[in-house]
Amino acid sequence: MEPREIKLSDYAPKMIEAIDAIKSSYGSFSAHPSLQADPQKVESVLAELTTRLEDNFPFFHPHYAGQMLKPPHPVAMAAYIATMMLNPNNHSIDGGRATTMMEREVLRDLAAMFGYPEEFLGHLTWSGTTANLEALWISREINPNLAIAHSKDSHYTHTRMAEVLNIPALAIESDAAGRMDLNDLEEKLKTGQIGTVVATLGTTGLGAVDPLADIIPLAKKYGARVHVDTAYGGFFSLIPNSLDPETARHFAAISESDSVVVDPHKHGLQPYGCGAVFFRERSIGRFYKHDSPYTYFASEDLHFGEIQLECSRAGASAAALWATLQVFPLNADGLGAVLQAGRNAATSWHALLEKSEVLVPLQQPELDIVTYFPRMNTLEQIDRVSAELFHRSAAVDRKEQIHLATYVMKQSGFAKRGFDIPVDPARDSARIMRSVLMKPEQENWIPDLHSHVENVTKEITEENK
Ligand SMILES: Cc1ncc(COP(=O)(O)O)c(C=O)c1O
């Protein structure tokens, strides 16, 4: 059939009915009195919930061009709701028979996307944070007492998790594009103190891609492991031809890393609660050994609980991802087409920003994050106008609202990129604007978004003259 817009309301009732049928096939029973409730009360609570949910930014709308937020696909939602009605727990095969098999299938596909060998070890997690924690924990077990090195632009989770794991963390300088500086990395590797280098492929702030293909040989030379945090960027592996060839070379090098993390709840159309971690070597499983006399009895096969830090984990997450990837497979025409649209949006907005009289792009977008700031001369002015732009774009009627996000840029960061913004003894940074264009619809909304943002910037700068 011809593709058409998929609505949750077209599928959810059928799925609820189908799962109810599975449940009643075991023989019907009524809920215990302790679980019964006054239907009027339920109705009023759910009505209140709806009212309270009004108090939100419209993450689902193309006019929301701020943080890394977007809604799951209706296929994922329908699958999640249906599976949640049975609430399997992918800790063990006993807890989630069907969903464990689905998780194995999606893991095979994701590992293949990264070019990992078939003997990889991996599993889904609740988040990118837990996925990274696991990879750093394994790194600590392999290289005890040695530090992890991550770029200054990496996600804060790495320093925080180093604290949790009680290992030192070293911040490596980043270059003018926000990528890890190889010279600084080598200087630090030479000390012999680094056990693991964390390369970020798609930094949270700027979407910059660390030079992984060059980091791997360097780390090997000094005996360090390489962990890749591609929680946000990982699915760009599907569209190498739409990336700068140098960026694509670094995505291709993921296949040579020791471990990698990706978040299907970012670019994989999933609801929150879906990260993933992979290790190249299956033998890593030895670090997870634990005693659990109360689980693992229905099957001799490997249970996810035997190779993950977390205990309970939603089987519904695996089901939602499995269903989504059946409809949007991991190739350039499937899920890749979704990423491609965001990438197109970023490059076309960048082109408009380059021609703007009131806004300046900070740097070329490497993935789908666009950063820009008002064309002003001082840190104080840039900061003030950016903050006002953020508030004013959203302070109008709903249909006119544009939602943006800010990012803090240091004076040294402007200077590194060739902007002549003077040092200010009163402050060392300014807020600029950051838009993550991760909703494919935004591809067609860029002229609209751009003219809105330009107009509001003009209005603010006129008032400030
Ligand atoms: C590069 C990177 N790593 C890790 C994380 C943390 O992931 P999560 O929010 O799923 O815990 C993020 C979140 O934005 C990220 O962008």
The tally of strands reads 11
**Rounded mean pLDDT score:** 96
Helix content: 40-55%
| Shape label | globular
> Under CATH, the topology of the largest domain is which?
Aspartate Aminotransferase, domain 2
How many domains, as an integer?
Answer: 2
CATH architecture term of the largest domain: 3-Layer(aba) Sandwich
Strand content: 5-15%
CATH superfamily of the largest domain: Type I PLP-dependent aspartate aminotransferase-like (Major domain)
Radius of gyration: 24 Å
Structural class designation: alpha/beta
Series of H and E elements: HHHHEHEHEHEHEHEHEHHEEHEHEH
Q: What is the strand and helix layout of this fold?
A:
Elements (H helix, E strand, L loop, with lengths): L7 H17 L14 H15 L20 H11 L12 H17 L7 E5 L2 H15 L4 E5 L5 H9 L3 E4 L9 H9 L3 E7 L11 H10 L3 E5 L15 H8 L6 E4 L1 H4 L7 E5 L35 H13 L7 H21 L3 E3 L7 E6 L4 H16 L10 E6 H6 L12 E8 L9 H18 L2
Parallel strand pairs: 2-3, 2-4, 4-5, 5-6
Antiparallel strand pairs: 1-7, 6-7, 8-9, 9-11, 10-11
Bound molecules: pyridoxal-5'-phosphate.
Could you walk me through the main structural features you see in this protein, from its secondary elements to its overall organization?
- The strands form two sheets. Strands 1-7-6-5-4-2-3 form a seven-stranded mixed sheet, sandwiched between helices. Strands 8-9-11-10 form a four-stranded antiparallel sheet.
- The chain has 465 residues and is an alpha/beta fold.
- Helix 8 links the parallel strand 4 and strand 5.
- The chain folds into two domains: 244 residues, Aspartate Aminotransferase, domain 2; 129 residues, Aspartate Aminotransferase, domain 1, CATH 3.90.1150.
- The chain contains 15 helices and eleven strands.
- Bound molecules: pyridoxal-5'-phosphate.
